[in-house]
Amino acid sequence: MSDHRKASNRDPACLFCKIVAGEIPGDVVHETETTLAFRDIQPQAPTHVLVIPKAHHTDAVAATRADAALMADVVLAAGEVARIEGIADSGYRLVANTGRDAQQSVGHLHLHVLGGRSLQWPPG
Ligand code: DGP
Question: What is the rounded average pLDDT of the residues 90-114?
Answer without folding.
Answer: 98
